[in-house]
Amino acid sequence: MKLDSRIPQGELSNKWTEYKSSVPLVNPANKRNINIIVVGTGLAGASAASTLAEMGYKVSAFCFQDSPRRAHSIAAQGGINAAKNYQNDGDSVYRLFYDTIKGGDYRSREGNVHRLAEVSTNIIDQCVAQGVPFAREYGGTLSNRSFGGTQVQRTFYAAGQTGQQLLLGAYSALERQVGLGNVTMYSRHEMIELVKIDGKARGIIARNLVTGELERHFGHAVLLCTGGYGNVFYLSTNAMGSNVTAAWKAHKNGALMANPCFTQIHPTCIPVSGHYQSKLTLMSESLRNDGRIWVPKEKDDNRAPNDIPEEERDYYLERRYPAFGNLVPRDIASRAAKERCDAGYGVGPSKMAVYLDFKYNMKEKYGRAEATKRGISNPDDATLVELGKELIKEKYGNLFDMYKQITDEDPYEVPMRIYPAVHYTMGGLWVDYELQTTVPGLYALGEANFSDHGANRLGASALMQGLADGYFVIPYTIGNYLSKEIHTKPIPTDHEAFVTAENNAKERIKNLMGIQGKRSVESYHRELGKIMWDKCGMARSEKGLKEAIEEIKALREDFYKNVRIPGSADEFNPELDKAGRVADFLELGELMCHDALNRNESCGGHFREEYQTEEGEAMRNDNDYTCVFAWENKGENNWEVHREELNYENIKIQQRSYK
Amino acid sequence: MGNSMKINLKVWRQKNQNTSGSFETYSVEASPDMSFLEMFDVLNEQLIEEGKEPVAFDHDCREGICGMCSMVINGRPHGPKQGVTTCQLHMRSFKDGDTVVVEPWRSNAFPIVKDLSVDRGAFDRIISSGGFVSVNTGSAVDANSILIPKETADTAFEAATCIGCGACVSACKNASAMLFVGAKVTQLSELPQGKVERESRVVAMVNQMDAEGFGACSNTGACAAECPKEIPLSVIANLNREYYKAKLNGK
């Protein structure tokens, strides 16, 4: 199969403009006769569904939660990037484009990323118009802060709950269209089959999670906005319900999975506290604006952090990366934390944590500035801390509260203890410039696709990409496909393709329910997660990956013999929902290991122990691996790998350095 | 496991909307660092091992922001701690040997789905009736072209932090949704972008709220006291003000 990214010809900065002016359109009268299915209602899904409905298409939207407002975009904390240059600090579309390509360790497409940077500014305008209450300065203008991997302030935010505010904006736009009758919303529904007719995506089989009924839904096109698959690791910052099922069913029905091993391990999460742990909680990257990361200089130093004097602390990020300091990209910060902990310098009860300390900036940066502002001369330390605390609270209050709630420690008094955790997946369904997968009429948006972040995503760029895809990209690109579909009448769902797809799903559920073994679904998920974390996590090796593949195969076999799902298939049964998702993770996990094994280099979040520099940095192999690997499912857990070359015409590929 | 604690649970079990329910008693070994929902995970694994049906409950993000978790714990929505959701409540808030009663949200407007899980579709329908700014994608002006005083933005933000969990309804003896509606009305009526439609919005949302069967507000303030995001009672005063103004203007 030849993978054609269909990036328009011409100058980089003109590609999108020219594409938009020449892409075929669908006239308003025809739009009313076209049905679009949108699966998932996070930033990508809600923004796509509402925008397409505004344009006149008939939209059906699906989410597995009880309300579209609960999609996991809601939990994004720190912010959203946009090349507005409101801070007059030298930002530009080109610079955002460049930072993103470099941050992704030169494994993403120039054309896609430049478009993302271009539309970033429209997103902020649109969100403000919807009533999203971003943080503001006293003069009434929007406020910005910095995120990792950049040297400008381009991140817009709403305290530590930016994702919530952006999602509620998109959700209200979606609900408006529901009220106008342009969107039909199906909550507590899960897509469990993709329906294809004559090679084109024509609908889905969805399971009503309340009644267990299987439903057939037709669409001229299907959009998967179903997020990432970080929960394959069991413990991650994803929501409990986040899953790969919709994307995986599409994959098994012809859509290629690209770079599945590209996983983002976020450096600042609350460490694991016990075996019962069900998920991990992120502490926003924005905290690295004011928090300094350190470990004791001595191994096994058991003193309380505040008792360790300044000169006995190792601010290892500032030491190793003086140019970016605590704001190095996530993959680098995570590996550096692992390196210190593995070497025996970790802190806390598990020794698998490092400190994130706000004392210095609370006192010196904010305290002193506030003292000057209030005309307090020669303030003592206690006054400085007190003054600084108020400002820290304003910036990060909800995060500090959350930390205290979970750990029972007060981060205003003692440093946070943090450790990396699985957070985001850069890999996903392969899409071309139009966000179309290898199945005509099937699109993937947001985290569900692989396209923009290469081997490592920069902070505050997930929100940007989700909304870019939904508000500003798909409304144009889908026209190219749908303009040729205006003569296609809605296909009745008694078509044999729908019948067959429904029967397949029914058979699968019957199979699962019939096993009646001894082990809970959860126990399998937990075991899979441990294999993935140990052998396909922050550090990977040929030996480990080969072992992992065998272990996953064995675990999968055992699952189909011994899993126990209580209840029945025709009622509200969360255990059955979970079983279906874990069954898919048990296949995806294996593919991720194959992909990691196949990529004989280290890049971004993909760190192969065999490929590192003397200083322990990721060592890329640009000659052989400046490409995307996209995997085609050949049935029965067999895959064929395809390759898309990445051409850098504008950016010179360099060794990534943040020193 | 160090400092393990035994918790006796009385949990509401109800197969579905059409059957009646009852309390069942269970005993769980928990640890103080566990979240309340992780304690339920342990219970459910135990039940599955014993060949019994696990307790159905809603939950998703487990970091206090999605608004999906919803348990009435010892008579209080989201349990004994101020300003936290069920998923952020930890077992250290309880003592070894405690008996804890767990029920679903209680309101006619939130029918039971199963056990502790309820249907909060009414909230979506209220938002859909008017909880938005009517602006299509693409027609926005530059974000900094309308200046908004920081205090205004902060007030709007405070109201906008509502997670739509429904604890306010569950806490209210009248099952009123005024805090939820007031929060959205306040957010949008504060901001210049939302002012244009403020009158039609508030009337539409209040009408929908009434149609869904939520009760009237009698100013006891239980909603604000139990709100995990500490949405202030003043949003209800604001809702009333907005509503009367709109009505006086003939909306």
The CATH architecture of the largest domain in chain B can be given as Orthogonal Bundle
Q: Main sheet of chain A?
A: 5 strands, parallel
Could you say which structural class the secondary elements and strand pairing of chain A correspond to? Answer: alpha+beta
**Helical fraction of chain A:** 25-40%
Sheet having the most strands of chain B: 5 strands, mixed
Tell me, rounded to a whole number, the average pLDDT of chain B: 96
Q: Name the CATH superfamily assignment of the domain at 266-422 in chain A.
A: Succinate dehydrogenase/fumarate reductase flavoprotein, catalytic domain
User: What's the tally of helices of chain A?
Assistant: 17
Report strand % of chain B: 5-15%
The order of strands across the largest sheet of chain A is 5-2-1-9-17
- Helix count of chain B equals 9
CATH topology (fold) name of the domain at 266-422 in chain A: Flavocytochrome C3, Chain A, domain 1
Explain the overall architecture.
The complex is a heterodimer of chains A (659) and B (251). With 659 residues, chain A is of the alpha+beta class. Among the domains of chain A are: 157 residues, Alpha-Beta Complex (Flavocytochrome C3, Chain A, domain 1); 142 residues, Fumarate reductase/succinate dehydrogenase flavoprotein-like, C-terminal domain (Methane Monooxygenase Hydroxylase, Chain G, domain 1). Helix content of chain A is 38%, strand content 14%. In chain A, the strands form 5 sheets. Chain A has a 5-stranded parallel beta sheet. The longest helix of chain A has 27 residues. Chain A starts with 14 loop residues before the first helix and ends in a 14-residue tail after the last strand. The radius of gyration of chain B is 20 Å and the shape is elongated. In chain B, a hairpin with a 2-residue loop joins strand 6 and strand 7. Chain B contains 9 helices and 7 strands, in the order ββαβββββαααααααα. In chain B, helix 5 packs across helix 9. The longest helix of chain B is centred in the C-terminal third of the chain and has 15 residues. Chain B is an alpha+beta fold. Classes of the chains: A alpha+beta (659), B alpha+beta (251).
